[in-house]
Design the sequence.
């Protein structure tokens, strides 16, 4: 028999007849002019999708198995065409992390099935049934140094440069927030003209003098907990840049809101009044004092005009989310 790589459409039609696929001779050979090389390169995805669009699952599987046998019998022709025996079998079929064996930078990782080639990294698939693979589970590509990078769960690129940028971002946002707080303090409404807004809950509950200090203490405790998580977590760089990005963005939006809207002081117990800090240098000095003290009364910083846009609430909420989510992730990983 002639080499499959030089088969004509008629010879392909004869092979289809012999294998019991005479119903598809018209479609494959007459309409789409399938010859020997294109038959060897045919994939199951080609059979399923347009323009062929076969709909009978049994025929799809049987034809794919017949092509698979043909490929095994014609390894040399496949290599001449620049194909590997499984390139045509698995093309278009997603590969899951549990189906791979690869060698990257000398480190072997073995899994269950198959044989695939991914940008110079050999992936061996040992099972012939590849229709059950989950999509998007493996992303394999090459860096300029020739090393292969797998973006798999549990192995993420720390990308320290992003963490540095997000840290610088939140650093400057906090400084800008402190300066806006100084400007807002100069615009605090007069309590005699604009008394505190009525609140049915706060007006009915007695004020707890130590509650504000306790809120700051909770924020400090959460901060230390998050620092401990960063010290122990393998993805500390990712966690830090996510926190910095979120907190910086929320505080930047808080700056805009404070500057645009001047609300009355929230309670009679607060002795707040507008205050002028003189020239620009005086404002900068006051902003630096707020910045260095993190805007907390525990560090001796007293601010006015920003109570209705609580930065304490932002910090406590974000830190609480990050601490609890990291704990949940740890529990899931060690379940």
Sequence:
């Amino acid at each position: 028999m002639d080499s499959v790589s030089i088969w004509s459409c008629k010879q392909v039609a004869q092979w289809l007849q012999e294998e019991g696929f005479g119903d598809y001779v018209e479609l494959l050979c007459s309409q789409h002019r399938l010859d020997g090389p294109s038959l060897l390169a045919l994939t199951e995805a080609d059979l399923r999708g347009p323009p062929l669009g076969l709909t009978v699952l049994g025929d799809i599987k049987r034809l794919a198995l017949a092509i698979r046998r043909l490929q095994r019998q014609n390894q040399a022709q496949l290599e001449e065409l620049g194909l590997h025996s499984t390139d045509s079998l698995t093309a278009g079929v997603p590969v899951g992390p549990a189906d791979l064996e690869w060698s990257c930078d000398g480190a072997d990782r073995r899994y269950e099935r198959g044989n695939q080639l991914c940008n110079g990294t050999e992936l061996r698939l040992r099972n012939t049934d590849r229709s059950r693979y989950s999509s998007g589970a493996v992303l394999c590509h090459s860096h300029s140094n020739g090393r292969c990078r797998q973006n798999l769960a549990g192995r993420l690129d720390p990308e320290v440069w992003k963490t540095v940028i997000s840290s610088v971002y939140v650093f400057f946002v906090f400084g800008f927030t402190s300066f806006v707080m100084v400007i807002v303090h100069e615009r605090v409404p007069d309590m005699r003209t604009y008394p505190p807004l009525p609140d049915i809950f706060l007006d009915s509950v007695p004020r707890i003098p130590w509650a504000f200090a306790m809120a700051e203490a909770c924020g400090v405790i959460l901060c230390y907990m998050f620092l401990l998580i960063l010290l122990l977590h393998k993805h500390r760089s990712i966690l830090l840049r996510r926190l910095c990005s979120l907190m910086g963005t929320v505080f930047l939006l808080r700056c805009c809101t404070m500057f645009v809207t001047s609300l009355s002081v929230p309670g009679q117990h607060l002795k707040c009044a507008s205050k002028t800090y003189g020239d620009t240098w005086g404002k900068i000095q006051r902003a630096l004092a707020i910045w260095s003290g993190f805007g907390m009364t525990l560090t001796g910083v007293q601010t006015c005009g920003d109570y209705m846009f609580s930065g304490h609430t932002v910090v406590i909420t974000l830190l609480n989310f990050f601490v609890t989510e990291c704990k949940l992730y740890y529990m899931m990983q060690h379940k």
Remarks:
- DSSP finds twelve helices and six strands in the chain.
- Residues 193 and 264 are 9 Å apart (CA to CA).
- The beta strands are 102-104, 107-109, 116-118, 121-123, 140-142, 148-150.
